[in-house]
Structure formats: C-alpha cells, structure tokens
C-alpha cells in the first residue's frame, strides 16, 4: 500500500479493493437489525392492542350485565303493576296491552294460562336482525340468566332477559376498535419500517468500510454520513483507519530501517571478516616470507663482516650497515605484525595474546604502569569472539597511551555464564568534549562490531577522585557464526 496516495472515500475502490456492493454480509446485517427493530415494535404494539381489546371486552361484559339486569328488573316491575291494573279486566285486556306494547328491547315476554297454553310471546327483535355475536364472545360477556315470573289470575307472565342485542353491540364496538387498531398497526409499522430502513442505511456503508479495513485497505475512508449517530461512527472509523494507517506506515518504516541496519551490519561484519582475513594473510607473509628474507640478508651481511675483516674496511663498513638496516627492518616488521593481526592469538589464546600486547606497550619509552588480569579467562574461546575482545583492548590501550597522559592503566578480562567481559580503565585526562564528533571511528567501529556479535561496548568518563576513562565490553560466549571461508585460521 502506498502511503503517499490520498485516502479514498468509501464508494471509490482503489486498486482492486472491495466496493460497497461487494460484501453481501453488509446488506444481510442491515436487514437483520432492521427486522429485529421492526419485530420488537410489532410485538409491543400487538401487546398494547391485545390489552386494549381485553379491556374493551371486560368493559362490554360489565356494561351488558348492568344493562340486562337493570332492564329486566324494570320491565318486571312495570309488568307486575300493569298486571294488577288489568287483573280486574281479565286476560283479554292484558293480552291487548301486550300486543300494543310489542317487544321490550332486552327482554322476552311470555303470557301463559294456568293450563300451560302460551297466550302471548314477544315478537322477534328487528334491531340488527339476522346477526349475532360469536358464541365464544357471547359466552364470555353474557350475564347470568335473568327470569321473573309474575302470577296473574288464570295464568302467569314470564319476563326473561335477552342480552343478545347488547352483546352484539359490544361485539360491533370491539370489531370497530380492532379494525382501527389493526389499521393503525399496519400504518405505524409501514412508517417505522421505512424510517428504520432510512436510519440504518448508512450502517451498510460503515460495515462495507470495516470490511475493506479488514481486508487491508487502510487508505479507505467513509464519506459524510447522514444522521448524528452515523456521522459520529463514521468519523470514529475514519480516525481509527487513519491511526492504523499511520502506525502501519511507521512500522513499515521501522521495519525497513531495521532491515537496512541489519543488512549494513551484516555487510560491515563481512567486511571485517575480509579485512581480518587479509591482515592475517599479510602478517603471515611478513612473518614467513619477508621475515626469512630479512634474516637471510642479515646473516649474509654478518658473514661478509667477518670475512672481510681488516682487509677491506670500506666493504666491511657497508656489510655492517646492511646488517644494521636489516635488523632495524626486522624490528619494524615485528612491530607491524601485531598491529595487523595478533598471531599469538591463533596458537596461544586470548590471555597470552593480551599479555604479548601489553608487553609490547610496556617497552615504549615513557609508558605508564600497565596491569593485566586475565586469570578468569577460559581456554578454547571462539576465534571470532577472542579477536573482537583483543581489538577492544588494543584500541582502548592505544587511545590511552596516545591521548590520556595516564600514569596507570588497568586491563581485566574474564568470562562467566553471562559471557565475556573486558574492561580497560586509565587515570588520565578523561574524555575530550568532542570525542563523539564525526571522524572518530575507532571505538564506533568496535561498537558496531560487537553489536554484530550480540555484545555491547560502553565508554564513560570516571568521576572524582579518579579521573580518566573506562571502556567496558561484554560479549556472549556463543556469537553469530562466521562464514567458513572468512573464519580466521587457527
């Protein structure tokens, strides 16, 4: 992913990434949430309507019971008093009255003779004729049966309550309420379904953006979304994507820097191996070939000195000069070889090589007191590890001899389970203020060399009462393996 490319809004898919219509789970998730909200609303409204209808049924039941009981009682009392009036006139007058009265709305009136003959029955109801409420509803709201018998001379008048019309009125009211409630439920559900869908529509875009982020398109950004909540979520997602993208770019840059540093260290290590190899070859050539040649020249010159004797004073003087120059060349060569590579390290080990190095330093004119402690060094150290330790002591010792003006230099080398420790400490002038300026690559090169082996190098100035410099190095006993072709010969 190119971090320099501008962040793309969600509807635009950069370089093979998914668009908003790509992942089907987005639409499914949107419909699922919409369906759940809609189902919850339908359930709540359904419970409300059911409760309302139950309340209406209970109210109808109470109303019918009160109406029927009261109507039957009033009709019975009225007909009982009318029967007293018509008691002297006989059944004919009462029958004529009943025929004129007709049907009393909520009551069935029957006149029977003492012999059980039915003389009169109320006509059937004309109110909502031909209709009846369902049996379950009638059974639910019907009041207890109401029946009154009025005794008359020569017969009886029976007044029975008929709640069917009142129950039908209650049923019609219930159906009217249920119809209005159902229509309201449908209308509200349609409006809510539309509004919820409109509200949740931005979440499809949000989910699509999250899917793109999951697939690694961290440059994706959500467009401006309608609605306060959706806009807040979209802004949060964009901030998260920007933070993730920034951290990813930072980690990529850090990874590239680490990889470049590792490659540079590996190259430097290979160069160090090659340089040490070349130094070792040059030292061996100087020691074996040039050393033998110089020794041969000196032997021949000394032989000429003895043979010429007093016979040829000029030739004897020239031969002596040649022998002297050969001896000086031999000394210079032997002083140069340890600077190229410590040959004693191959055959004698680190302790003896350091002793040889310190011995040579002690022979310099005006050299300070140098103490060496290598009693805790084990035998058989890794050649590359031993060479790195030797170079640390060599560089620190040379710096102390050249620049510190120290009267005493302490060198200690030891090894334990944690690794190899080297310390070079002097009581000289201390570190100069500009010791870290560019151009001083000796100790810096050693630090990188030790880091390549898994070690560390520390340089610090000593505080009073003893001024000076302490160079400390630590190396693991098992370092990174060297290339066989570049491993120092033993």
Automatic annotation (TrEMBL):
Please give the start and end residues of each transmembrane region.
Answer: 35-54, 174-196
Where is the segment annotated Disordered?
1-23
Domain HAMP: start-end pairs:
197-249
Q: Write down the EC number.
A: 2.7.13.3
Catalytic reaction list = ATP + protein L-histidine = ADP + protein N-phospho-L-histidine
Instruction: Tell me the PROSITE patterns matching this sequence.
Output: HAMP (PS50885), HIS_KIN (PS50109)
- Calcium: present as a keyword of the record? no
Pfam families per UniProt: HAMP, HATPase_c, HisKA_3
Which cell locations does it reside in?
Membrane
Could you tell me which InterPro entries the record lists for this protein? HAMP_dom (IPR003660), HATPase_C_sf (IPR036890), HATPase_dom (IPR003594), His_kinase_dom (IPR005467), Sensor_HK_TwoCompSys (IPR050482), Sig_transdc_His_kin_sub3_dim/P (IPR011712)
Q: Which domain of life is it from?
A: Bacteria
* Sorted UniProt keywords: Kinase, Membrane, Phosphoprotein, Transferase, Transmembrane, Transmembrane helix, Two-component regulatory system
Q: Which residues form the Histidine kinase domain?
A: 285-479
Keyword Transmembrane helix in the entry? The reply is: yes
Please list the GO terms describing molecular function: phosphorelay sensor kinase activity; protein dimerization activity
> Which SUPFAM superfamilies does the UniProt entry name for this protein?
ATPase domain of HSP90 chaperone/DNA topoisomerase II/histidine kinase (SSF55874)
Q: What class of enzyme is it?
A: transferase
Name of the protein in question: histidine kinase
Q: What is the scientific name of the source organism?
A: Leptothrix cholodnii (strain ATCC 51168 / LMG 8142 / SP-6) (Leptothrix discophora (strain SP-6))
User: Species lineage, top-down?
Assistant: Bacteria, Pseudomonadati, Pseudomonadota, Betaproteobacteria, Burkholderiales
């Amino acid at each position: 992913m190119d971090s320099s490319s501008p962040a793309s809004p969600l509807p635009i898919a950069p370089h093979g990434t998914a668009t908003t219509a790509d992942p089907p789970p987005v639409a499914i998730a949107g419909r699922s949430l919409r369906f759940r909200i809609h189902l919850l609303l339908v359930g709540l409204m359904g419970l409300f309507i059911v409760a309302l209808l139950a309340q209406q049924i209970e109210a109808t039941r109470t109303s019918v019971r009160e109406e029927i009981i009261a109507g039957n009682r009033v009709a019975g009392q009225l007909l009982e008093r009318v029967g007293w009036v018509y008691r002297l006139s006989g059944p004919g007058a009462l029958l004529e009255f009943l025929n004129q009265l007709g049907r009393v709305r909520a009551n069935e009136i029957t006149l029977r003779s003492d012999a059980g003959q039915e003389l009169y029955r109320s006509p059937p109801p004309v109110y909502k004729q031909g209709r009846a409420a369902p049996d379950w509803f009638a059974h639910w709201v019907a009041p207890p049966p109401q029946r009154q018998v009025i005794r008359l001379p020569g017969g009886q008048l029976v007044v029975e309550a008929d709640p069917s019309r009142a129950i039908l009125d209650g049923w019609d009211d219930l159906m009217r309420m249920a119809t209005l409630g159902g229509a309201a439920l449908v209308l509200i559900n349609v409006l809510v379904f539309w509004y919820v869908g409109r509200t949740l529509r931005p979440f499809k875009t949000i989910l699509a953006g999250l899917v793109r982020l999951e697939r690694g398109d961290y440059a994706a950004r959500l467009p401006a979304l309608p609605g306060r909540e959706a806009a807040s979520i979209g802004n949060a997602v964009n901030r998260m994507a920007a933070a993730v993208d920034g951290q990813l770019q930072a980690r990529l840059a850090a990874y590239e820097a680490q990889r470049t540093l590792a490659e540079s260290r590996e190259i430097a290590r290979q160069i160090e191996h090659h340089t040490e190899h070349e130094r070792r070859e040059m030292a061996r050539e100087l020691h074996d070939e040039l050393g033998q040649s110089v020794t041969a020249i000196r032997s021949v010159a000394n032989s000429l000195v003895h043979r010429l004797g007093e016979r040829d004073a000029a030739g004897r003087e020239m031969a002596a000069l040649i022998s002297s120059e050969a001896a000086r060349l031999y000394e210079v060569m032997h002083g140069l070889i340890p600077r190229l590579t410590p040959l004693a390290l191959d055959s004698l080990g680190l302790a003896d090589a350091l002793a040889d190095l310190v011995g040579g330093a002690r022979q310099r004119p005006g050299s300070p007191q140098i103490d060496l402690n290598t009693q805790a060094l084990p035998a058989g150290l890794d050649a590359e590890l031993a060479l790195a330790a030797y170079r640390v002591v060599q560089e620190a010792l040379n710096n102390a001899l050249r620049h510190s003006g120290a009267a005493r230099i302490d060198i200690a080398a030891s090894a334990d389970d944690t690794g190899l420790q080297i310390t070079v400490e002097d009581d000289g002038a201390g570190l100069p203020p500009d010791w870290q300026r560019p151009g001083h690559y000796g100790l810096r090169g050693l630090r990188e060399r030790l880091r390549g082996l898994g070690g560390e190098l520390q340089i610090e100035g000593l505080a009073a009462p003893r001024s000076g410099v302490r160079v400390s190095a630590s190396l693991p006993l098992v370092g990174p393996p060297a290339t066989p072709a570049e491993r120092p010969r033993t």
